[in-house]
């Protein structure tokens, strides 16, 4: 199968007639709880393009939520997956071993920040990686409590949903929640009450107060933080905050876990977003971009912490599936050999200034923020910082009609996030930004 033509093509209205028909069937067959951002059915995808069953070529500014950083059909991923499928699809690593699992672990031990001895365990989904990071931290410290941030997103399982901040749609009706999860304020510069320059220090003071006087530092197993908050709205913590938290954690024997599931593996213009802040986490969770679209996740960290769990305590039937591992080796090779870390920075340079032109005193765009190929626009009522989710939604819908797939995020649903594949051709990226900028102007 060849790569789809790297061009935006509007063959029908979007969604087209075939997609509309299938969507009606889907509605009848699938549970309502499964949402969809853009109701088009995809026939093939690769590079920076998704081709739907009506023949529309959409520009991909989502990467399946930061997953297909190397594109949805990178030749190196396709080749290795095909080869692996022919050899064997599964043994269960808990039953018999294979090289792919060990090779992915070794690659993550090498690529993650810090030159200490590291070990890795593989899983299938991001939520599972976060759950296991907590299990490992609890086993290593003998402590129960987990500290998370406001606006955090860590997944949809019971523990990770409990660690997630936003109620609707993630938590509403799904309680009771897991115990021993404590929340501290997120230093959200744009919305920090006393101003962005006070955010790092005041949020860190609040964390210290909550940990030492409310929970007791000796009861805390882990502090878990996304180095840039993803679903919460692409919130970049102010400089110094993560470093202060990491040092505080170290002082008190608390495991500092960086959830890099969305930010990791080149997305932000560094292999890991922690590197921008010179932070070396004790444990790091990865998933999304790890395996070029196949389900694979990992916890990587200090060998002595990772080894705290006795044999049999970690794993899962599908954890580190050989086909997913083959895909990961292809994706990691592409990230390294095609210089995708640098590409993410180029994407930022190409996009950021153009988007910043949309920010003005009475604009609907209150802020442009992010790092690398993880850039967002926050929508507000002109002249205020009051969230304007209906504005963001209108812009996204306009983009979709024009064949550009963009996503919303944010606690208030008022943030448009851009997560293009890192392999997107630059002219397609420019065209997607043209469409987005026009959509903002027309909605405003
Ligand atoms: C997506 C995400 C998760 C959950 O990953 P799943 O594979 O959907 O379970 C956890 N943490 C962060 C930061 C994420 O972006």
TrEMBL record:
<dbReference type="InterPro" id="IPR015424">
    <property type="entry name" value="PyrdxlP-dep_Trfase"/>
</dbReference>
<keyword id="KW-0032">Aminotransferase</keyword>
<dbReference type="InterPro" id="IPR015421">
    <property type="entry name" value="PyrdxlP-dep_Trfase_major"/>
</dbReference>
<comment type="pathway">
    <text>Amino-acid degradation; 4-aminobutanoate degradation.</text>
</comment>
<dbReference type="InterPro" id="IPR004632">
    <property type="entry name" value="4NH2But_aminotransferase_bac"/>
</dbReference>
<dbReference type="GO" id="GO:0034386">
    <property type="term" value="F:4-aminobutyrate:2-oxoglutarate transaminase activity"/>
</dbReference>
<comment type="similarity">
    <text>Belongs to the class-III pyridoxal-phosphate-dependent aminotransferase family.</text>
</comment>
<keyword id="KW-0663">Pyridoxal phosphate</keyword>
<protein>
    <recommendedName>
        <fullName>(S)-3-amino-2-methylpropionate transaminase</fullName>
        <ecNumber>2.6.1.19</ecNumber>
        <ecNumber>2.6.1.22</ecNumber>
    </recommendedName>
</protein>
<dbReference type="InterPro" id="IPR050103">
    <property type="entry name" value="Class-III_PLP-dep_AT"/>
</dbReference>
<dbReference type="InterPro" id="IPR049704">
    <property type="entry name" value="Aminotrans_3_PPA_site"/>
</dbReference>
<keyword id="KW-0808">Transferase</keyword>
<dbReference type="InterPro" id="IPR005814">
    <property type="entry name" value="Aminotrans_3"/>
</dbReference>
<dbReference type="Pfam" id="PF00202">
    <property type="entry name" value="Aminotran_3"/>
</dbReference>
<dbReference type="InterPro" id="IPR015422">
    <property type="entry name" value="PyrdxlP-dep_Trfase_small"/>
</dbReference>
């Amino acid at each position: 199968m060849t790569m789809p033509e790297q061009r935006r093509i509007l063959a029908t209205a979007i969604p087209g007639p075939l997609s509309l028909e299938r969507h009606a069937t889907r509605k009848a067959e699938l549970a309502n709880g499964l949402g969809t951002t853009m109701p088009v059915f995809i026939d093939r995808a690769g590079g920076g393009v998704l081709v739907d069953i009506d023949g529309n070529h959409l520009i991909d500014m989502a990467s399946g939520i930061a997953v297909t950083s190397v594109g949805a059909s990178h030749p190196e991923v396709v080749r290795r997956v095909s080869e692996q499928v022919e050899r064997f699809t599964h043994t269960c690593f808990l039953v018999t071993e294979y090289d792919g699992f060990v090779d992915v672990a070794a690659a993550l031990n090498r690529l993650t920040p810090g030159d200490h001895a590291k070990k890795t365990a593989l899983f299938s989904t991001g939520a599972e990686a976060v759950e296991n990071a907590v299990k490992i931290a609890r086993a290593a410290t003998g402590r129960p409590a987990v500290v998370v941030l406001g606006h955090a997103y860590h997944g949809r399982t019971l523990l990770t949903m409990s660690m997630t901040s936003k109620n609707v749609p993630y938590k509403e009706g799904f309680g009771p929640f897991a115990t021993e999860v404590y929340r501290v304020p997120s230093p959200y510069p744009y919305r920090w009450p006393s101003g962005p320059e006070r955010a790092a220090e005041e949020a860190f003071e609040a964390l210290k107060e909550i940990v030492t006087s409310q929970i007791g530092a000796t009861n805390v197993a882990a502090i878990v933080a996304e180095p840039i908050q993803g679903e919460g709205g692409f919130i970049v913590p102010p400089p110094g905050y993560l470093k202060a938290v990491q040092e505080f954690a170290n002082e008190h024997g608390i495991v500092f876990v960086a959830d890099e599931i969305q930010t990791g593996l080149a997305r932000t213009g560094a292999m890991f977003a922690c590197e921008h802040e010179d932070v070396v986490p004790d444990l790091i969770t990865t998933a999304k971009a790890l395996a070029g679209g196949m389900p694979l996740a990992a916890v990587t960290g200090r060998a002595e912490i990772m080894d705290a769990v006795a044999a049999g305590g970690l794993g899962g039937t599908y954890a580190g599936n050989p086909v997913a591992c083959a895909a990961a080796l292809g994706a990691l090779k592409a990230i390294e050999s095609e210089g995708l870390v640098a590409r993410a920075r180029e994407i930022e340079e190409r996009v950021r200034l153009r988007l910043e032109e949309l920010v003005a005193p009475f604009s609907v765009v209150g802020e442009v923020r992010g790092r690398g190929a993880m850039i967002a626009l926050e929508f507000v009522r002109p002249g205020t910082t009051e969230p304007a989710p209906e504005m963001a939604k209108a812009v996204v819908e306009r983009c979709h009609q024009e064949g550009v797939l963009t996503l919303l995020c944010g606690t208030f649903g008022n943030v448009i996030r851009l997560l293009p594949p890192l392999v997107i051709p630059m002219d397609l990226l420019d065209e997607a930004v043209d469409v987005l900028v026009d959509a903002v102007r027309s909605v405003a």
